[in-house]
Amino acid sequence: MSDTLKFVRHPHPNPTPADKRAALLANPGFGRVFSDHMVTIRYSDAKGWHDARVEPRAPIPLDPAAAVLHYAQEIFEGLKAYKTADGGATLFRPIENARRFQQSAERLAMPKLPEKIFLEAVDELVNIDRDWIPDGDGSSLYIRPFMFANETFLGVKPSSDYLFIVIASSVGAYFKSGADTAVSVWVSQEYTRAAPGGTGAAKCGGNYAASLLAQAEATHHKCDQVVFLDAAERKWIEELGGMNVFFVFNDGSMTTPPLGTILPGITRSSVLTLARDKGISVREEKYSYDQWKADAKSGKLREAFACGTAAVLTPIGTVRAPDGEFVIGNGQSGARTAELKKALVDIQRGAASDPHKWIHKVF
Ligand code: PLP
Ligand code: COI
After folding, report:
1. Any atom of ligand 1 within 6 Å of the Cβ of 227
2. How many angstroms separate the CA atoms of 131 and 119, rounded?
3. For the chain, percent of residues with pLDDT exceeding 70
């Protein structure tokens, strides 16, 4: 089967007028403003990958017996396109998203979209919807590639048909409080996100469905995000509902939970590299909730931050749990979080050199 495809372009006959688009981009929030187009590619066991199109974004017809609606065989990715000072557009490490998409596909018994086609699909959409990339600090075009089981069949088995789609959403900060305001987190002690042998390391919709009750509990306790502990011992910190987590200690060192049952975040991997570039000692090691509480209270822990494509680096100020709450540092953003965020964002936005060749130029 071929790993090249020709994309047929059907530009929108009535794209959003410029004045309406400008009004939408003025304050887009996260995930509610969508661009004019989408990319679709079909897969069937018989034909492989075929029928690649760039077309107007529109509802998709689905048979009520489509397998995804019953057994949730679905995976997705998230990455951002940035506008550069010279009027171009860039993506940050998109090859890592293409690779993780393949790993997620493998875990969900889905076909692996060749990396090259994944990248071309994303480039096609960014190109045609370039006017939807907002400028300004903290704004970008969030790209959402996803794929789902599209066979009309109620038997439980890997689907024979899939639809891969890429859509784009003009976004600002993920949290309503803004990009640099410390968030509060709720430590879920009843619900877990992933168990050894499960799908925790895959980016599949089912993981998020399973996290929603815990997230609702977090919201009920006036927290922005939920923190999950490991499923076996309910002891070790894993990650947040939609972000990885780092801890910064008074001796200058940092730690983050090891890979295994957590999502291998591309921001996490970039922060590890940037910290090591700066000579900071960073461990990928288990850290328990009890130790977190003790270190925050003794002052040994100076900062904690969440990180991910949507959240970038967001400071964690308050930790709440059924057994009480504690504050990290002064409850605000810390210097190390701000320093690492700047190092990352400057590379992403072309304000600093790119020693690791992370930037992919779209045009
Ligand atoms: N963990 C979870 C559960 C996520 O949903 C995300 C976001 O994609 C991350 C971590 C961070 O991953 P990345 O930095 O690749 O966006
Ligand atoms: C991302 O950061 O891209 C994510 O997927 C997290 C999102 C589910 C909020």
Report:
1. no
2. 19
3. 99
C-alpha of residue 180 to centroid of ligand 1, in Å = 18
Residues in CB range of 329: below 8 A, 6 or more apart: 301, 302, 303, 317
Q: Please, are residues 215 and 183 in contact by the beta-carbon 8 Å criterion?
A: no
Dump the DSSP string for 292-350.
HHHHHHHT-EEEEEEEETTTEEEEEEEEEETTEEEE-TTSS--HHHHHHHHHHHHHHTT
3-state secondary structure of 18: helix
Q: Domains in the chain, start-ordered, CATH in brackets?
A: 8-171 (3.30.470.10), 183-348 (3.20.10.10)
**3-class SS of residue 117:** helix
pLDDT at 1 exceeding the cut of 60: no
pLDDT band at 177 (very low <50, low <70, confident <90, very high): confident
Ligand 1 atom 5: the closest Cα is on which residue?
A: 242
* Claim: this prediction has a pTM higher than 0.90: yes
What is the pLDDT averaged over residues 284-313? 97
| Proximal ligand: closest to the CA of 174 | 2
Atom of ligand 1 nearest to the CA of 203: 5
Give the tens place of pLDDT for each residue, 199-221. 999 999 999 999 999 999 999 99
Which parts of 62-93 fold into alpha helices (H)?
68-71
**96-111 pLDDT, tens per residue?**
999 999 999 999 999 9
Which of 309, 312, 313 to mutate for ligand 2's pocket (most ligand atoms within 8 Å of CB)? Answer: 309
Given a cut of 70, whether residue 347 has pLDDT beyond it is: yes
CA of 16 to the centre of ligand 1 (A): 31
Ligand 2 first shell, C-beta below 6 A: 78, 242, 308-310
Mutate to test the pocket of ligand 1, among 75, 185, 211, 243 (most ligand atoms within 8 A of CB): 243
